[in-house]
Amino acid sequence: MSAATASPATSTTRPRPGRAVLRAELILFFREPGSVFWVMAFPTLLLLALGFIPSMTEPKEEIGGLSTVEAYVPVAVLLSMIMAGLMAMPPVITGYRERGILRRMSTTPVRPTAVLGAQVGLHAVASLISAVLTIAVGRIFSDVALPGQIVGYLLTLLLAVVCVLALGSLISALSPNTKMAQAVSISVFFPAMFAAGVYMPIQQMPDLMANIVEMLPFGAAAQALNQATAGDWPDLIHLGVLALWTLVLSAAAARWFRWE
Fold first, then answer.
1. With the C-alpha atoms ordered 118, 121, 125, 127, is the resulting torsion angle positive or negative?
2. What stretch or stretches form a coiled coil here (predicted)?
C-alpha cells in the first residue's frame, strides 16, 4: 500500500527531459557573452548612440519627415532578430550534429527535437526582449513615439522572428559542419541587413530597389513595422510576403534537416 502511494509521488517530482534541456540550453546561451551582447544589447546600444547625435534626432524630408533615430527603431528591432537567427543559432545546432550529440540523444528519453525547440525558443525570446528594450530606449532617450497600431506591430514582430529562425534552421539543415554554417550565415547576413535598412533606410532607396527589397522578408518586415508605428495597419502585401517566406523556409528546413 505504502509502496503504491509512494510511486506516483516519485514520478511527479522527477524532472521532465524537455525542461532539463531548456534549462541547460539557457545556461549555455548566457555562457556565450558574444551572442548575448550582439543579440540583446548591440541593437539597443546602437540606437542609444544615434540618439546622442543632435542631427540624428532632427526630422528629414527624404525619409518622410522622420528623424534618423525614428527610422532606425524598426531597423534595430530587425537587427536583433537577424543576429539571433543567422549568426547565433545555426553554428550551435550544426555543432551539436557535427559532434554527434543529436544522434546520441536519439537513444535517450530526451529527443533531439527538444534541443532544436529549445534553441528556437530561446533565440525567439531573446529577440523579442531586445525589441522591447530597443523601443523603450527610443521612447525614453529620443522621444520616439510608441507603435500606434500595437496589434499590427506585434503580428509583424512574430512573423519576422519566426521567419528569421526558419531561415536559420534552413542554414543549419544545409550546412554539413560549423565552419560551413558560419560561412553561409555571413553570406546571408549582410544582404539581410541591407534589406532591413541598416545601411540605408528603405524610404531613401530608389523606387526600383525599394520594390525589390520589399519582396524580401526583412524589407517587408521593416515596411510593416514602419506602417504600424505610424498607426496604420501593415499592408497585407508586406504581411503576405513575410508569411510566404516563413512557410517556404520552414518547409525547406523540415525537408532537408538531418539529425546526423
1. positive
2. none
Cell of 140: 525614453
How many CA within 13 A on the CB side of residue 50?
25
Own/partner contacts of 101-107, CB < 8 Å, gap of 24 or more, are 102/259, 102/260, 103/259, 103/260, 106/259
Helix (H) or strand (E) holding 173: helix 150-174
Cell of 69: 533615430
User: What pLDDT digit, counting tens, does each position of 18-66 carry?
Assistant: 677 788 888 888 888 888 898 989 999 989 998 888 888 888 887 878 8
- State the cell numbers at 94: 550544426
User: How many CB atoms are closer than 10 A to CB 232?
Assistant: 13
Domain ranges of the chain: 15-256
* CA angle, residues 152, 157, 160, in degrees to nearest 5: 120
- What digits encode the pLDDT tens for the residues 185-238? 999 999 999 999 988 888 888 999 999 999 999 999 999 999 999 899 999 999
